[in-house]
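Sample intake sheet
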Amino acid sequence: MEYLRAFIVGGLFCVIGQILIDKTKLTPARILVIYVVGGVVLSAIGLYQPLADFAGAGATVPLTGFGYTLAKGVQEGVAKDGLLGAVTGGITSTAGGIAAAIFLGVLVAFLFKPKPKG
């Protein structure tokens, strides 16, 4: 059942993104920003944690989950270090994911030959 809930919630995030691409003039980059900010806002008002508990990876892996992780890290950082934690908490909580993305991006760049567009 856990896999089904993750699939449904993650799939709904994808469907919403696809509808935004197809029916609006928003660029994919702007949609990505909307998703991250949406995760932060939903975390701030206390709605994202119950969603993450219900859907597991279906809610924590997409870009809204990145915003959730940022917000959670900031909350923990402020509780631990005060105002300085507001700056360092989000960076600390997302450092592993960012490092993995950079490492895998470099690895893929070495494995495949990039070609200029056009």
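Comment: The mean pLDDT is 90. The CA atoms of residues 5 and 28 lie 26 Å apart.
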